[in-house]
Write the structure tokens for this entry.
Amino acid sequence: MTRFGLLGPLSLHDGTTDRPVTSPKGRVLLAALLLRAGRVVSSDALKQALWGERPPATADASLSNHVVRLRRALSAAGADPARLAAVAPGYLLRVADGELDTDLFEAALERARLAQRRGDWAEVARGCAGALALWRGDPLADVPCFAEAEPQARRVEQLRELRLQALEWSFDAELHLGRPQGIVPELTALTAAHPLREGFHRQLMLALHRTDRQAEALAAFQRLRRTLVEELGIEPGTAVRAAHQEVLAPAPPPEPVPPAPRPPLQLPAPVSDFTGRAEEVETVGALLRRESGGTGPRPVVLSGMGGIGKTTLAVHVAHRLREEFPGGQLYADLRGFGPGAPRAPHDLLARFLSDLGVCTESLPEDTDDRAALFRAALAGRRVLVVLDNARDAAQVAPLLPGGDRASVVVTSRHTLADLPGAALVPLAPLDRAEQHTLLAAVCGPERMHGEPAAARDILAACGGLPLALRIVGGRLASRPGWPLALLAERLTPHDGRLSALTMGGLAVQETFAMSYLAMRDSGRPVERAAARAFRLLGLWPEHALAPESAAALLGRGVRETVELLEVLADAHLLQTPAPGRYAFHDLLGEYAAERAAEEEPPGERAAAVRRLLVWYVTALTAACSATTRQTQPPPPPAEPAPAPPPRFTGAEDALRWCVREIPAVKHAIDTAGALGRPDLAWRIAVGLFGYAGTYWWTGEWDVCLRRAMEIAEEHGDTEGRAWLYRRIAVAHGMAYRNEECLENLSTALELFTADGDLDAQASILGNMSALYVQMELPREGLEYARRSRALYRVTGNTRNEALVLSRIASALQLAGDLEGAVEHYRQMVPLQRADDLPTSYATTLTNLAEALTQLGRRDEAFAALREALAIRHRLGDHGGEADCLVYTARAHHAFGEWDRARDCWLRCLDLARAHDLPLRVKESLEGLAELPGETGTTVPRTPCDVPHP
């Protein structure tokens, strides 16, 4: 849901990240519309907001342009741009319920007002707290000031006044609820900031008086009276005078009452600048409020990696709910992770019982008996128990209260999924908007606005980890002269970043070490094995792994590997972004790499990486087989496959795997070169042949082939050079770089001829045939196709029948033998359909359609094109989709269907521009230019025959 914020810097949020409105005029326009959201704002009022009393002569046109840009910003934030509508005499911005923070603020304040009228002061406190939590600073702090006479300025001033009203009501609630101690510091600041606001002075007097600070309360009254008399010539009002009389009145003698047990109030102080986590706060609060119907409390477990903010969130929620647990709050750090041994439940039970007023001189020695006594002491009492930093479920179980009144929240770096009945709330890193808000709260928003690029780099370096953000923010706050760019440079990944994320007693590296060392030094063999797996996974920290690839890296079986990966995931040392995928948080990956470098011998590190590279060769061979059914794969590497390759359900599944793995594949080629293994580097690059048949237009294959060739030449690998020349030629041919293609094919043919490899020679001759057809030389194309077929017959290779038919058909078509070409294409269709080769099949359909078009067989041609385009779109093959649209546009042109041709050319142009396909852009523009000036009359004005998939 789109969210708009006025209570602080202007914000436009798409539900996950802030979408800044960078133009100052754009912010003014959005602010003016939001201040009257849901109502028409006249164009004159908007021009006055933008330019004051003397707008320029071009103001009308400029306003229209700013509206267009604002609609784009709304669309980028996931909002329907049509919600900003032109409605006479100006514009209307529609905002839904819950999208605008001022609406939420005023609704919460209205709830507080109604609660005040009925004397429900606990509800007043909650309503005011909810309202005030929405404030991020002065309203529209980053928007140029409106003139004082303008309605926008009056609305901003009204919001400021409502905030002061919320503060007054919240202080009244605290006084009525008997909690004067916590409000004195804030009231002291507010009375200084608002010396004439009698309400704050009255509340300060009462808070001081009720905390036994009589003299200070009287001094507060005298300061207010002197200010009012000197500046306004009036005396304090009735309410202040009544408070003064209360301060002067002698305290009544205490009534004799039996001593009551004091509720334990053990929560640590909350973090004052707590940020974000709105959904988690509501979820945890709702779970803790819910009574369990007599079956005992349901523990709420907050889990996550070290530094993710578990304790901060638990304490924040516990303080918010303090009124709902009048029996008190018990808190204990179980020290499950950190220096020293975890705290024993046996000893903690003794402390809790003492805190609850139970005589501890004769406690039972058995832990279970103590746990039973603890449950009995809490029976019927509304107490919140906060168990922080738990090691495992066994440590927590004896500390759980019984009955249906108490509630429990547990924090742990483990998921504690084995804790009976637990409600599991895992914490992820903060989203982009929350990160920005937290860092701005610690170091100041003006520095963030002043260096936005450096701020983005810092946020990226911290990876959404609250601990890292607080360290960085603290450093910046303590060094006001530092530019953000300096710290951003020091936080460069893999360049001492973890050591830079340290300040005082806070250190990201030490926080991670607590989790890792607890596992490495564990008494459980599976945890020690998982710790070694963590180190070895640190050799490949930037890319997600599947169980099979992880098994290759670890040198273990797949089933055993999955068990270790799940142990690491349960400890939040690994993330599982998707089923069967495991990845590091950026900072944890860097820490794992450090552990591998320091604790694993060089030989073990090299062997692990080699295993993974060999696995990638095997996996890419399997993917290529699934997508092309290639009959001539390169010879396998010397080492056997260390783990099974992925299981592909078909060609599309294999292509999706290749697209996802491309970043890791490029890294693997570089790594193979660094290890001195050119044989692995070129095999990985060549293995992308199946991927490239569909996604050649991305340029990724060219990059991989060039890098592998550099490595092969550096190490003198002749076999690798031969295969790379062969595949580089194909890459050039796909991109219509004909001369380069022919040059590389010739070199590859020489190398394979010298090696005596007839199958390779036959394949290269077939490639030459395709190239000559592409160069519009049909005689040479047919000659090389026949030479290719002859060599295949010599070797007895019949598996390339469809490929040879394709070469011959293309040459015949170019030579003008259209019936012969159609006959050969028709023979290919069942072969490719049976082999599940979608890319080749789509190419054949397109070529068939072109031949049918030339024969004037319209319906057959467009039926083939529709099927081909649907295949390309399903594969996400934008280059192939553009090719198919080119052929379709030409077919419509050939049949005199100008409107349909124009529609296809325009669609192709949009697609080509969106995906950087310059040749298709050129073709589209040329095709549009060839259309007649007047539309044809052979068909009505309808969309292109090939539908939008």
About this structure: The first helix runs from residue 24 to 34. The longest strand covers residues 384-390. Residues 934-949 have pLDDT under 50 and may be disordered.
